Amino acid sequence: MAVRGKDLIRVMEEWAPVSLAVENDRIGLQVGDPEAQVDGVLLALDVTEKVVDEAIRIGANWIVAHHAVIFRPLKDLRTDTPAGRLYAKLLKHDLHVFIAHTNLDSARGGVNDVLCEKLGLEQTQVMIPTRTQPLQKLVVFIPETHYDPVLRAVCEAGAGWIGNYSHCTFNLRGTGTFLPEAGTNPYIGTQGELEQVREVRLETVITPEIQGRVLAAMMEAHPYEEPAYDLYPLNLPGEVDGLGRVGNLPQKLKLQELAQTLKEAYRIPGLRMVGDGEREVSRVAVLGGSGGRYYPEAKALGADVYITGDLDHHTALDALADGLTLLDPGHHVEHLVLEQIMHKLKEAPHLQEVPVQVTQVDTNPFNYI
Question: Which terminus of the chain, N or C, has fewer Cβ atoms within 10 Å?
Answer without folding.
Answer: C
